[in-house]
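Summary for the funding panel

The consortium committed to producing paired sequence-structure records for every protein in the target list. Below we show the first two records in order, beginning with the earlier of the two.
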Amino acid sequence: MTSTITKKAGKGRTDGVVSELAAYFNVKPGHAEELQAACQRFVEELRRQDPAQTIKTGLRDTRHVIFDGGRQLLWATTFETEWDPYVDDAILTVGFEHFADWMQHTTEWDELFAWVQEAGGMDALSKSSNNPDFEENVRKSTAGLKKILQDAQSQAASYFNPLGPLTMPQVVKAQQVNDAFQEVLDNPAAEEALSHPALKPLLAQAAA
């Protein structure tokens, strides 16, 4: 099956504003346990990030699955921005060192390490290095990384996301509005205002 590369999703499929990426890596023999720990550290690093910055990258979700008796790894993620800025912003926000932490346990690391050296070394791509040229280095060198990722990627046979029409900012805003409205509903002083006929559709939604 031939996959068409698009500006929106790269090699993946799209549902609404959300695109999928599923990349398969070969685990180095005997590295499954270290890989498991590194994948957990990667998620913990994402949890430490400012949620607003994480949302800005376009990230919807990410997961790592070690399978085939510890011999293979699936990295699956979904995003709502375009392919190129998604990869760039992921590296800029998280730092490549946190990707390298788990990628080094795959056989694809040799190719990835060659790209790292070509891009100026880990210091050039690591957010923690405080390199003043960090952003410039990332944006001018990620084409090589994107090719490696797409070489490891398999396009989904089909893809469905029930929240595909909505962006994360819209989802977050809706939750904030709902929380605020629930506070109003719980306030006895708002009873008279809420009895206005114009608010009937809003109250019906709150009661659903």
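The next record, for a separate protein in the list, is shown here:
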Amino acid sequence: MYANILVPVVVDEEAKTQTAIEAATAMADPGARITLLHVIETIPVYVSDYVPADYMITARESVAKRLEDLAADIPNGHAAIADGRAGPRITRWAEENGIDCIVIASHQPALSDILLGSVAGHVVRHAKSAVHVVR
């Protein structure tokens, strides 16, 4: 059982998110903190000229609202947003916030995942806490 659980969330993947939340809730100590984290990837410079100036502000507000709604349904649930590359940012956020377990959803691996690596794969390889992968 865990006291401080992190669930990385992609807000437009409801089924995977719900599965990860259910697993986290099942593994949580009574009174455990469960944090839903969404990482907003940086827009590449070569694309930024084509993106409206207020896009990132609007996207962050939308993600924050969705995370808060999801967290409200979880006992002692919290929402957080971070910026950067998803894999490294998730592991760094977990270290900075004393996470003792990361519950992350993953898709069925493909050949490209073996060559390039996925977010879940990065987290499994680099996290200093326990990691549970759900599919």
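Regarding this second record: The mean pLDDT is 91. The longest strand covers residues 28-40.
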